[in-house]
Amino acid sequence: MTVIDGEAVAAELRSELQSRVDELADAGERPTLATVLMSPDPASETYVEMKQQDCEELGIVTRDVELPTDAPGEELFTAIDELNADPEVDGVLVQAPVPDHVDYRRVVERIDPLKDVDAFHPENVGRLVAGYPRYKPCTPHGIQRLLAAAEVDPAGKHAVVVGRSRIVGRPMANLLVQKAAGGNATTTVCHSRTEDLASQTRQADILVAAAGVPELIDGAMLSPGVVVIDVGINRVEADTEKGYELVGDVEFESARETASAITPVPGGVGPMTRAMLLYNTVKATALQADVEIELP
Ligand code: GUN
Hints:
The chain is α/β, with parallel strands linked by helices. Helix content is 41%, strand content 16%. It has 2 domains: 27-130 and 272-288, Leucine Dehydrogenase, chain A, domain 1 (Rossmann fold, 3-Layer(aba) Sandwich); 138-268, Rossmann fold, CATH 3.40.50.720. The structure holds guanine (GUN).
């Protein structure tokens, strides 16, 4: 049984990306990511800081735009317009959630698709579904890379994705089913209305758990040899210093008895998601500067 080390795979990728940042610098291009924060969730500030720190470690320049949560939506749209128009800015990321009075869909549609490093814009979603992705969303792309690093080829396997979110479940299923490297899986998508979830998950050769429900899936719901990718990061009350602990969507201890490989929480998918944002930012720079680099 292998515990897939997301930190190690992410570190390797970051080091590869570092050399691409250097190549771009030699060509006179400094990759620049703008983060926009207008979130009512206090945790968002920490997430944005982590993303900025990841960038700075690689020499990616960051721009920090912060708006008060009670600012009118138009201020956010104007900020996005300015970043879209700024030739020095390669990527624009508006941290979700945004306050209730702002329509998140309009926010996503406002970002220049070439600067959409989250890959949430309908143009980028459409390209992915149509089979000619520009940017891939960070979490499912990171999972594809993790599977490759663990030498798990989805081709011909039965992949079961639990969760149908716009950011993880649906793009994950799209990537797994595609006729392309890292795809070619027979793919099932399960969700909150799936009847008899266990009968579906037991058919999985590869299980991606992205439901956001703590320990939804246990070892009894898996078949021997399954590769388990756990996307869940759930805070549950615990007798620890912080008063909580992080658990995945999979009950790790029972699942590891049955699985051939499993990602831990934390230290599995999370670090890969962060690394893929760097990947998309480097790609965004190369695309817009029209500099040819070979991405890792
Ligand atoms: N909020 C939580 N996850 C994400 C993400 O991947 N991108 C953005 N923009 N906001 C988020």
